[in-house]
Amino acid sequence: MAKIKSVVSEAAQIKLACELIELDARLQVLESETQLSRERLIRLYKEIKKKSPPKGMLPFSTDWFLTWQPNIHGTLFMNLYQACIKHTDMDDAQALVKAYQIYREQIQVLGLPEVLSMTRAWRLVKFFDAGMLTTTPCKRCTGQFVVDSYDLKKDYECGLCNMPSRAGKTKQDAASRFFNEEAQLEHA
After folding, report:
1. What is the C-alpha separation between 157 and 136, in angstroms, rounded?
2. Could you tell me if 137 and 70 lie in one domain?
3. Most exposed residue of 59, 110, 139, 177, measured as fewest CB within 10 angstroms of its CB?
4. How many domains does the chain fold into?
5. Tens-place pLDDT, residues 99-126
6. pLDDT of 70-99, one tens digit each?
7. Is the domain of 90 the same as that of 156?
8. Which of 127, 9, 112 is nearest to 58 (CA)?
9. Could you tell me which of 14, 113, 109, 101 has the C-alpha nearest to residue 69?
10. HEC string of the chain?
11. Domain limits at 21?
C-alpha cells in the first residue's frame, strides 16, 4: 500500500525550496532542508533560475567565519537566526530563510557588500549545531559574536571594538580613495 502524501505538506516543501533557490542556495542545501527528491529540486531550480544548479563542493571550514569581515556578517546573521528560533514558532528551515532575508535587507540598507551567501549561512548554522562554533560576548560592547567553541573566550574583544589594522582596506576602497584624492587635487 502506497503512503499518501499531504498536499499541504508538499506545497510547504515546494515553497521552502523556492525561497531557498531565490536566495541562491546550492542544491546540497535544498536537499538537506527539504524532503523533495533531487530530481524534483533540479527541475525546480532550472525553472526558477533558468539554468542548472552549480556543481562542486560546499565550503567546509570554520576558519572562514573567524576572519574579520566574515565574522561580522556571520555574527549579524547568527544573531538574527537565533532570535527567529527563540522568539517565533518558526522551524529551523523557516528561521534560516527569514534570518537570511533580514540579513540581506540590512546589508543593502547599510550599503555594504554581501559577504555571507545563503550556503555559507546554512553552513554556519550547521557548525553551531555540531558545536564547532558558538557565540561569546565582547567585553567592550557586550554583543554576541561568533567564535570557535574551543578558543579561550575570557576577555574577548570583537572585530568592531578591536579592528585589525588592515580592516576595510580593500582594493575597491583604495581605488575610491585614489579617485577622491584626484578630484580634490583638480579642484585645488
Report:
1. 10
2. yes
3. 110
4. 2
5. 999 999 999 999 999 999 999 999 999 9
6. 999 999 999 999 999 999 999 999 999 999
7. yes
8. 127
9. 113
10. CCCCCCHHHHHHHHHHHHHHHHCCCCHHHHHHHCCCCHHHHHHHHHHHHCCCCCCCCCCCCCHHHHCHHHHHHHHHHHHHHHHHHHHCCCCHHHHHHHHHHHHHHHHHHHCCCCCCCHHHHHHHHHHHHCCCEEEEECCCCCCEEEEECCCCCCCCCCCCCCCCCCCCCCHHHHHHHHHHHHHHHHHC
11. 11-58
Q: Residue for cell digits 574551543?
A: 150
C-alpha cell at 161: 571594538
Q: Whose grid coordinates read 547599510?
A: 110
Q: What are the cell numbers at 118?
A: 545563503
Q: Percent of the chain beyond pLDDT 70?
A: 86
State which amino acid sits at residue 4: I
